[in-house]
Write a structure and sequence with these properties.
It contains eleven helices and 13 strands. The protein has 320 residues and is an alpha/beta fold. The chain has a domain of 220 residues: NAD(P)-binding Rossmann-like Domain (Rossmann fold, 3-Layer(aba) Sandwich). The strands form four sheets. The chain has a seven-stranded parallel sheet with strand order 3-2-1-4-5-6-11, with helices on both faces. The structure holds nicotinamide-adenine-dinucleotide. The site of nicotinamide-adenine-dinucleotide (NAD) has 28 residues, from helix 1, helix 5 and strand 5.
Length: 320
């Protein structure tokens, strides 16, 4: 297949690009190298993929409607995997307008571009566990109400799900939305907890632990998420929505201990108040993804962290 991956230089996107190339597809990577974290890290993410003659990079801003439409009508992809977004819950509280613009307007640009070609490409897009809001009852199912997000980022992801359904309904676009639950692994985004905690523990610096350490996240290894994305692309028709999680949430204090064990170092913990916008729990019910996609996450946290730490030691992303 010919596949466009937006955000393909990012953490999840670059792993997906590697997998699609390994599976024999032709891949166009679209990325604007936004300033959220250093360009050098994203270039390193893509370095091996760009050696492959079946991969090409188009650098553009996903909101540039004229260039996006020209690219889609020229490339005529079989599928578009739309991952580019301004990610991160806490920074979205500082700049909600930017998040709405990149995430919501940017997604509409791609939905419109996808609907100008026949046959319609499959459209698979990244949503997030954050749409479930701050809940204590779990696990989270796709049929649950997601009307109470608690961060601008979460609200933009819910808005994208709604808009994707509109384009499916009005224009027959085959659409699958995927709610990722805290991805981690090599090339981890540097703002995410696992990357930050690894850097701090490795340097012998205090690790900020927000709240009492009992908040829980459904950490999901990036290779398992990528496997779920590939399965969703293969089966994308009509309109579907899936949780892609690990269905095994881990407490923050347990995560810190597991990273310390993977590094072979003792953590110094600094207790801080809970952060606004952070939810207490994420926990995916993956029954629908398992039965309809054959999705089956298989990487235990200790194994995934060991792979992350091995990559961290080899790549030294903290020097970028
Ligand atoms: N990492 C997670 O745990 C997680 C969880 C839930 C959802 N998601 C979603 O998955 C997707 C990928 O996340 P990630 O963690 O790989 O993030 P990332 O920041 O590593 O990747 C996003 C990529 O999009 C690009 N981008 C951002 N704004 C752009 C713009 N205006 N034009 C062109 N490119 C732009 C960035 O340069 C980056 O390479 C995002 O949609 C994110 O919201 C991620």
């Amino acid at each position: 297949m010919d596949i466009i991956v937006t955000g393909g230089a990012g953490f999840i996107g670059s792993h997906l690009v590697d997998r699609l190339l390994a599976d024999g597809h032709e891949v166009v990577v679209v990325d604007g190298f936004d300033s959220f974290y250093p360009r050098a890290l994203k270039e390193a993410n893509l370095a091996s993929a760009l050696q492959n003659p079946r991969c090409r990079l188009v650098e553009l801003d996903i909101r540039d409607a004229a260039r996006v439409k020209a690219l889609v009508s020229q490339a005529r992809p079989d599928a578009i995997v739309h991952l580019a977004a301004r990610a991160g819950v806490r920074p979205s509280i500082e700049d909600p307008g930017l998040y709405a613009d990149v995430n919501v307007r940017g997604t509409v640009v791609w939905l419109e571009a996808a609907c100008q070609i026949e046959p319609r490409p499959r459209f698979v897009h990244a949503s997030s566990s954050s749409v479930y809001g701050d809940r204590r009852d779990a696990p989270f199912r796709e049929t649950d109400s997601v009307d109470l997000p608690i961060s601008p980022y979460a609200a933009t992801k819910k808005a994208c799900e709604l808009l994707a359904h509109v384009f499916h309904h009005l224009h027959g676009l085959p659409v699958t939305g995927l709610r990722f639950f805290t991805a981690y692994g090599p090339r981890n985004r540097p703002d995410l907890a696992i990357a930050k905690f690894t850097r701090l523990i490795d340097r012998g610096e205090p690790v900020p632990m927000f709240g009492d350490g009992s908040s829980r996240r459904d950490y999901t290894y990036v290779g398992d998420i990528v496997d779920g994305i590939v399965r969703a692309v293969d089966r994308c028709r009509d309109h579907h929505l899936y949780n892609l999680g690990n269905s095994n949430p881990v407490e923050l204090s347990g995560l810190i201990a597991a990273i310390a064990a993977a590094l072979g170092k003792e953590p110094i913990i600094e207790r801080l108040p809970e952060q606004p916008g952070d939810v207490h729990l994420t926990y995916a019910d993956i029954g629908r993804a398992t039965s309809e996609l054959g999705y089956a996450p298989r990487t235990p946290l200790a194994e995934g962290l060991a792979r992350y730490v091995a990559w961290y030691r080899a790549a030294r992303p903290d020097r970028a």
